[in-house]
């Protein structure tokens, strides 16, 4: 665990990387925690999905291209945007859920008029997601990655989990997904176990509220 250079908190760390103008390579330029990222971008906040961000949502999906989408609600058909919002609300309320799904709340991380990331918080675990999936799935739009926003999104989603008395929180990721694993570690994740699934290793982390 390192100290944030700005606020000296020990809880988490972010390597803040920028493209260097001289040689075009990426370099480590700063070490700050998610709270400092929020201070630098004071407009970043977590919201429930709403009509206001329809244009930005469509841009986000285009930006993802053929990439696998995380979390799963990004796969919902959004041609009829209000219908998609209604479906997200049904998931939140636990109404007409597909077989095997538990109620879950989708949050959008937004910065003024732009959507930056999406998180999905499962309200409880069933056997399937306890094994692989966990309580939280999340992703950041490609052009905003590597700036500490994934760790910030996870931190804000964990606050929602604590508010619902969901604890400890299970967060899973593929072992090869280093950005995801480090984002979880930066939020106090403790590796609980690893399992094999479809030829891939899944790491299962547990996060408890800090005292
Ligand atoms: C995983 C994801 C959400 C991380 O978001 P992000 O904004 O890029 O991450 P951050 O900038 O907050 O960085 C978090 C940690 O990952 C590290 N990291 C970021 N990009 C990385 C990369 N490409 N390779 C290795 N580590 C990386 C950071 O250095 C930081 O680690 P540190 O705290 O030890 O320094 C983002 O990469 C993403 O959306 N990926 C696609 C969807 C996905 O894989 N979701 C997770 C499914 S479990």
UniProtKB/TrEMBL annotation:
The record's keywords, sorted A to Z, are: Transferase
Q: SUPFAM superfamilies, per this entry?
A: Acyl-CoA N-acyltransferases (Nat) (SSF55729)
Q: What is the lineage of its organism?
A: Bacteria, Pseudomonadati, Pseudomonadota, Gammaproteobacteria, Alteromonadales
Single GO molecular function: acyltransferase activity, transferring groups other than amino-acyl groups
User: Where does the record place the N-acetyltransferase domain?
Assistant: 60-211
List the Pfam families: Acetyltransf_1 (PF00583)
Its signal peptide is: none
Which protein are we looking at?
GNAT family N-acetyltransferase
Q: Which InterPro entries match?
A: Acyl_CoA_acyltransferase (IPR016181), GNAT_dom (IPR000182)
């Amino acid at each position: 665990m390192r100290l944030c250079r700005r606020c000296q908190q020990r809880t988490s760390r972010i390597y803040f990387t920028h493209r260097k103008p001289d040689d075009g390579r990426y370099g480590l330029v700063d070490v700050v925690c998610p709270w400092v990222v929020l201070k630098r971008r004071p407009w970043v906040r977590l919201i429930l999905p709403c009509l206001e961000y329809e244009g930005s949502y469509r841009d986000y999906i285009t930006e993802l291209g053929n990439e696998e989408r995380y979390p799963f609600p990004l796969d919902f058909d959004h041609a009829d945007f209000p219908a998609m919002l209604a479906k997200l609300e049904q998931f939140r309320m636990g109404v007409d859920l597909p077989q095997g799904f538990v109620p879950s709340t989708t949050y959008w991380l937004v910065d003024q008029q732009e959507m930056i990331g999406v998180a999905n918080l499962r309200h409880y675990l069933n056997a399937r997601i306890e094994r692989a999936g966990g309580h939280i799935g999340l992703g950041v739009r490609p052009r905003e990655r590597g700036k500490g926003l994934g760790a910030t999104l996870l931190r804000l989603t964990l606050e929602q989990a604590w508010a619902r008395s969901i604890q400890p929180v299970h967060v899973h990721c593929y072992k090869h997904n280093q950005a995801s694993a480090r984002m979880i570690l930066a939020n106090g994740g403790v590796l609980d176990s690893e399992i094999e699934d479809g030829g891939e290793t899944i790491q299962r982390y547990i996060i408890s509220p800090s005292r």
